[in-house]
Specification:
With about 350 residues, the protein is α/β, with parallel strands linked by helices. About 30% of the residues lie in helices and about 30% in strands. The protein folds into two domains: about 1-125 and about 275-335, Quinone Oxidoreductase, Chain A, domain 1, CATH 3.90.180.10; about 130-270, NAD(P)-binding Rossmann-like Domain (Rossmann fold, 3-Layer(aba) Sandwich), CATH 3.40.50. β12 (about 220-225), α7 and β13 form a beta-alpha-beta unit. α3 crosses α4 (about 160-175) and α3 crosses α9.
Length: about 350
């Protein structure tokens, strides 16, 4: 099968950073489904895993943590899917990724693809939808039924992949007042089109900008971009007894003491936790994706594709990595077909 992978961890401009490969097609066992991959999207986790380091792989390392495709075969314990089912999923960071013609994935973290979307537009959703949903509704415990309507959330990184679906979940389901950050006119317009009520610039004084909007604080903060740079502002603007959730690893110690007087909470969100540790509730991600598909087909949520870069090959995957590393992407970058 065709695949895009690596043996060495190199800067993205290096010719061998990502390679076109021919690998054996795997066979499913247990609760695995074998998916014929039709489209993938690229996320910051891809380039973070690929980041330069002094390591050489004996077997090819295939990245890719978002896909949509068709079930080609099923393991003997599979009960949720059958051959021919269109599916979408984000996969498992501990296993071979989606940048390949066929991929094995545990059925408990797979959803039925939204019927109203083609494979390319469906592939944009899984990782970011799971991340934003878990951060907002499971970590911060905001009600997805609107019981917290009217409360305020600050979404840092509103025009990125996770921010793009996070704005929609916060506005359409939770009925929150959404303040999103964006630093360019085009990214600000994108965030507004998804439902953001207000825009602030994360390169400026965010607490001052939020106060200028007439708000003394926000009930929740979602940090979807640069925890180190944005945590102090988040701690300043979060309400007493409020909560902050971040998805971005820190490079230096986080000054959590800033939250003590407010009795405010800090939550980590990592969407691979369930699959990485084989938690007893892994199937919650299947249920989550099923609900996301229902909401998309009902017109409540929309896909977050920013650009389709072409077929799945090393050149296009390298291009996507470079765009994400340089912070030039709005919405999700998608590749379709081999």
């Amino acid at each position: 099968m065709k695949a895009v992978g690596l043996y060495r961890y190199l800067p993205i401009d290096a010719p061998e950073a990502l390679l076109d490969l021919d690998l054996p097609t795997p066979a499913p066992s247990g609760r695995d489904v074998l998916v014929k991959v039709e489209a993938v999207s690229v996320n910051p986790v891809d380039y973070k895993v690929r980041a330069p380091k002094d390591k050489v792989e004996t077997d090819a390392k295939v990245l890719g943590y978002d896909a949509a495709g068709t079930v080609a075969a099923v393991g003997p314990e599979v009960t949720l899917f059958k051959v021919g089912d269109p599916v979408f999923y984000a996969g498992d960071i501990t296993r071979s990724g989606s940048n390949s013609e066929f991929q094995l994935v545990d059925e408990r973290i797979v959803g039925h693809k939204p019927a109203s979307l083609d494979f390319a537009h469906a592939a944009a959703l899984p990782l970011t939808a799971i991340t934003a949903w878990e951060a907002l509704f499971e970590r911060l415990r905001v009600s997805p039924q609107g019981a917290d309507a009217g409360k305020r959330v600050l979404i840092i990184g509103g025009a990125g992949g996770v921010g793009s679906i996070g704005i929609q979940l916060a506005k359409q389901l939770a009925k929150l007042t959404v303040i999103a950050t964006a630093s360019r006119p085009e990214s600000a317009e994108w965030a507004r089109s998804l439902g953001a009520d207000h825009i602030v610039d994360h390169h400026g004084d965010m607490p001052a900008q939020i106060r200028a909007l007439g708000f003394q604080n926000v009930d929740y903060v979602l940090i979807f971009n640069d925890t180190d740079a944005n945590f102090p502002a988040a701690a300043e603007i979060v309400a007493p007894q409020g909560g902050i959730a971040t998805i971005v690893e820190n490079d230096k110690p986080i000054p959590v003491e800033l939250l003590k007087a407010k009795s405010a909470a800090l939550h980590w969100e990592f969407m691979f936790t369930r699959s990485m540790f084989g938690t007893p509730d892994m199937i919650e991600q299947h249920k989550l994706l099923t609900e996301v598909a229902r909401l998309v087909d009902a017109g409540t949520l929309r896909t977050t594709v920013g650009e389709v870069l072409g077929p799945i090959n090393a050149a296009n995957v390298r291009r996507a990595h470079k765009m994400l590393e340089e912070g030039r992407a709005i919405g999700k970058l998608v590749l379709s077909g081999f």
